[in-house]
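TICKET #2291
ISSUE: user wants both folds in one file
ATTACHMENT 1:
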Amino acid sequence: MKLGLPDGTRACLFDMDGVLTDTASVHAAAWKQMFDEFLGPEREPFDIHRDYDDYVDGKPREDGTRSFLASRGIEVDEVTITLLSDRKNALVQVKIAELGVKVFDGSVAYVRAATAAGLKTAVVSASANTHQVLAAAGIDDLFHVVIDGIVAKRRDLAGKPAPDTYLAAAHDLGVEPGEAAVFEDAQAGVAAGRAGGFHPVVGVDRVGQAEELRQHGAHLVVKDLSELLEPS
């Protein structure tokens, strides 16, 4: 099976939420519930599409919290940032337990095809729940390396849009950035892949933001990874 990647590609690095698993909507709902509780009825509520895409998607929780509050001109101390971020994480865990985890079948087929072709694979996610989600989805055995929010904190890696977490995954896999493809649905993640010198950076457009993904550095944009697969 052809993967639609340049010759010389040795690894595939995948974001999780929105690329492999249909959990971006769960995260968006958790962000909205947390922020709306904080904002109260006097302020404009969190927009589950615009605010999610522009300020929190793909970023570490505390960075997302800071980014959104700054967009509203709201100043709080770091203790409050941590409390709000922890509240969002608790809501995500509840929603995952209640709703389970769905995968994008085209993405799973692509990962399996990449592995069959001898490519190394990694998940690079800001989520601290990455292992829990992958296990719940039944795909935790498909990846050689996982760089998640817990690993990033332990290694003091800057979150997306900085390229640090993707560079760490490439290092752990033993490949150079130019030998690895990045697959991302978040604008911040696409920017991270491009900043790290990865090629190609594939934008996965699940919510109608193809142009924004290109503007942030995607070399190509698909609606589903199955579009890249071709018979050998």
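ATTACHMENT 2:
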Amino acid sequence: MTACVRDTALALAAVSAAVSLTACGSGTGNVSDPGSARKIGVLLPDSTTARWETRDRPLLEQRIRQLCDDCTIEHADAKGDVAIQQEQMDSSIAHGVDAIVLAAVDARAMSASVGKAAAAHIPVIAYDRLAEGPISGYVSFDGLEVGRLQGKALLTAMGAKAHDGRIVMMNGDPGDPNALSFKQGALSELQGKVTIAKEYDTPEWSTETADLNMTEAVSALGAGSITGVYAANDGLAAGSIAALKADKVSPLPPVTGQDAELAAVRRIVGAEQYMTVYKPFGPEAAAGGAMAVAAARGQRLDGVATGRVKTHSGEEVPAVLLTPVSVTLATIRDTVVKDGVYTLKQICAPPLAGECRRAGLT
């Protein structure tokens, strides 16, 4: 755990140091006046997943303004609709933005829009999700490692029941390439060790769809036969748990998650969810904002990146890949509380006061 946090801190330090150089004009970009005002588009996929509006957007905007106090930020939320995000990309291009930070609703469907931006000489930074098309840079977490953390945790929670156990896999949106990485990482841990009795993809990462799918799974498998649930994120965990509780499944099987939403951390304290994956949003947004500013100024992104990643077309682009962290009841204090994401007062608000005392959180 300490190593994971340390790796993330080192990556952020590298990004910050590199940005100090590029912001001073050490890059070899094609903009004649790097100090002039720039416009940066920040296009996020939805507000259904809490992180986008409560974490990523304010942190991205904060970082952009730290590095470029006269930059104008044009933000848009696609409401989970590809067509809306395509229109927002067209609008950003028409407005003459100097760079776009894109968290794609559907990575493949946005390929043509990314191509339009490239044709207009507007660099696109793929944020959190590896959008297809001629992107200029990529910032995210190691998706395979996210899935591996989830798979390992689920096996740990199931213990001796894993050998004869049957799990339900509640995968993410098939249009999100991260969902595939999470699934591949999880399967690398789960295959051959547990039976996957039911598996679902969840368009738009919908909590409601997860609820319906889990209801169907309980009906098909029987209330007492599900010994674990792989939920790719906290929204899917919430929907799965709601369905299990509605069908009076008791005790609840261990359920994974991702994004370290406050509601998920509280469910962990309340013994309804076993774990979540914490992806420190500060370092991700810092790297995304740094790439956006460098790109808007026409500077090289290799000075900001900590590595390179191969895109769907086979081209390698500058990238920052950060390290995710597993959060269970035993590590809440040393992760999301230590990093200032939530306070113990927020986590331990009624009716969880007793559970927090027993867990040593108060």
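RESOLUTION: both attachments delivered.
EXTRA DETAIL ON ATTACHMENT 2: Confidence is low (pLDDT under 50) at residues 1-34.
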